[in-house]
C-alpha cells in the first residue's frame, strides 16, 4: 500500500504538468452543453418577495367599535387570562386587551397581533395570508384597546384566536 503523500504528490505533478487538466477539460466540454436554468411556477412564486399585510390591507373596510358598557365587552376575558382561554380551546369566546405589537414571521404567511410585550404572557390573534386583504392594516391597532371574538384554537399548548373576518375585532370606545 502506497503512503498517501506519494499519491498526492503524483496527482499534483500531473495536474501541474497540465496533462490531467487538459484531458478533463476536453472530455467535459465535448460531453454536454452547460445545463439550462429552468424554473417552475412554484419556484418563481417562492422567489418573489411576499407582501406584508399592510401592503394589501383594505382601504375601504374599517373596524367596528364597542362601548365599555357593551355586554360582550363585560363578558370578555382579559387577554392575560391564559388559563381561562386554554379551557375554551375549540369553543367560541371573546377577549379584550390593548394590542402591544405585531410580528410577521420571515415567510410572510401570517401576522400575529400580540397583547403583551412579552407575547407569551397574553393570548395572540393570528391573521393568515389568505385573509390579509379582508382586513384594514392591523398594525394600526397597536396601542389601542380592542375586543376580539371568535374560536379559540390550540397552538403548541397555548390558546390563540385565528382571525378570518374583520367583524371579529372591535375598537373599544
The CATH architecture of the largest domain can be given as: Beta Barrel
Strand content: 25-35%
Derived structural class? alpha/beta
Q: Termini separation (Å)?
A: 87 Å
Walk me through this protein's architecture.
- The chain folds into 2 domains: about 5-35, no CATH class; about 55-170, Beta Barrel (OB fold (Dihydrolipoamide Acetyltransferase, E2P)), CATH 2.40.50.140.
- It starts with a helix and ends with a strand.
- It is built from 6 helices and 9 strands; from the N terminus they run H-H-H-H-E-H-E-H-E-E-E-E-E-E-E.
- By secondary structure, it is of the alpha/beta class.
- The chain has helices at about 5-15, 20-30, 40-45, 55, 70-75, 80-85, and strands at about 65, 75-80, 90-100, 100-105, 110-115, 125-130, 145-155, 160-165, 170.
- Strands 1, 2, 3, 4, 5, 6, 7, 8 and 9 form a 9-stranded mixed beta sheet that branches.
In short, what is this structure?
With 173 residues, the chain is an alpha/beta fold. Helices cover 28% and strands 27% of the residues.
Write the layout of secondary structure elements.
Elements: H1 4-17, H2 19-31, H3 41-47, H4 53-56, E1 64-66, H5 71-75, E2 77-78, H6 82-87, E3 92-98, E4 101-103, E5 110-114, E6 124-128, E7 145-155, E8 158-163, E9 169-172
Parallel strand pairs: 1-9, 2-3, 6-8
Antiparallel strand pairs: 3-7, 4-5, 5-6, 7-8, 7-9
Provide keyphrases for this structure:
single chain, 173 residues, alpha/beta, OB fold (Dihydrolipoamide Acetyltransferase, E2P), nine-stranded mixed β-sheet, 27% strand, globular
Amino acid at each position: 500500500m502506497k503512503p498517501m503523500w506519494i499519491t498526492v504528490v503524483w496527482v499534483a505533478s500531473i495536474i501541474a504538468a497540465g496533462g490531467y487538466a487538459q484531458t478533463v477539460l476536453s472530455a467535459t466540454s465535448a460531453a454536454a452543453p452547460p445545463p439550462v436554468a429552468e424554473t417552475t411556477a412554484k419556484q418563481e412564486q417562492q422567489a418573489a418577495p411576499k407582501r406584508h399585510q399592510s401592503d394589501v390591507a383594505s382601504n375601504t373596510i374599517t373596524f367596528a367599535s364597542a362601548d365599555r358598557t357593551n355586554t360582550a365587552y363585560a363578558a370578555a376575558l382579559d387577554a392575560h387570562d391564559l388559563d381561562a382561554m386554554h379551557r375554551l380551546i375549540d369553543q367560541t369566546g371573546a377577549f379584550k386587551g390593548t394590542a402591544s405589537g405585531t410580528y410577521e414571521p420571515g415567510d410572510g404567511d401570517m401576522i400575529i397581533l400580540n397583547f403583551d410585550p412579552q407575547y407569551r404572557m397574553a393570548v395572540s390573534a393570528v391573521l393568515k395570508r389568505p385573509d390579509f386583504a379582508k382586513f384594514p392594516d392591523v398594525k394600526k391597532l397597536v396601542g389601542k384597546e380592542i375586543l376580539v371574538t371568535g374560536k379559540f384554537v390550540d397552538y403548541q399548548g397555548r390558546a390563540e384566536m385565528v382571525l378570518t373576518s374583520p367583524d371579529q375585532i372591535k375598537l373599544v370606545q
